[in-house]
Design a protein that fits this description.
Blueprint lengths: L4 H8 L4 H19 L2 E3 L4 H9 L12 E5 L1 H9 L1 H10 L8 E4 L4 E5 L8 H17 L2 H4 L8 H15 L6 H15 L2 H11 L1
Parallel strand pairs: 2-4
Antiparallel strand pairs: 1-2, 3-4
Bound molecules: zinc ion (ZN).
Length: about 200
């Protein structure tokens, strides 16, 4: 990557190390607002109640997750990991859009800034993410040892139920159903491919 014009001028005039560091610090500060995320206050009770109703998890008043609005690109990177994200970018492959993600380590739901806050899809998204929250606090997520795809089918199923019962975005339900099935097959690993071929014949 070529150095920017601004950067070359600063080095070209024999700037001292202090000046260079100061310059770098200022450039860094200028970048921060782009990374800043907004915390959102939301009543998560309806979503946790819904997820409890359709799963076998329990909830004993643990603190509910924080919600933060984050840049779309970062939410995609959180969801796919930087390696898979970069691979897809370089191959020009479009990864399915992820509108939100629950990070268990931070007990935080990150919502993509691409989704308008008054959009009904926010509710759908929260119903899905609250399943991940319950999986986390009930010890299921940890038991997967990183094979997190196994947590997805259940979250998609609860999401579908929310969409169906509350009549939100009904045309996408079929797609969500496919995602759920795919996640269940992926969860099975090599047995998943065997299952898939057996079902095709
Ligand atoms: Zn999920």
């Amino acid at each position: 990557m070529p150095l920017s014009f601004d950067f070359q001028i600063n080095f070209g005039r024999g700037a001292s190390v202090e000046k260079i560091l100061l310059r770098l610090a200022i450039s860094f500060l200028a970048v921060i607002p782009a990374f800043a995320f907004a915390s959102i206050k939301m009543d998560l009770k309806p979503y946790v109640d819904f997820a409890l109703e359709w799963t076998s998890y329990s909830y004993h008043g643990e603190p509910l997750p924080k919600i933060k609005l984050e840049r779309h690109q970062l939410v995609q990177i959180f969801a796919y990991g930087d390696y898979e994200y970069a691979q897809a970018e370089s191959k020009g492959v479009e990864l399915p859009t992820v509108y939100a993600i629950y990070l268990a380590d931070e007990k935080t739901i990150y919502i993509s800034d691409q989704l308008p806050l008054n959009d009904k899809k926010i509710d759908v998204t929260l119903a899905h993410e609250m399943v991940h929250y319950l999986q986390d606090i009930n010890g299921y997520t940890r038991s997967l040892n990183g094979h997190t795809v196994c947590s997805e089918s259940e979250a998609y199923d609860v999401q579908m139920l929310w969409q169906k019962i509350k009549n939100v975005d009904p045309e996408s339900i079929q797609y969500v159903y496919q995602r759920s099935t795919l996640a269940a097959i992926e969860c099975m690993g090599s047995k998943g491919s065997a299952f898939h071929s057996a079902m095709q014949n």
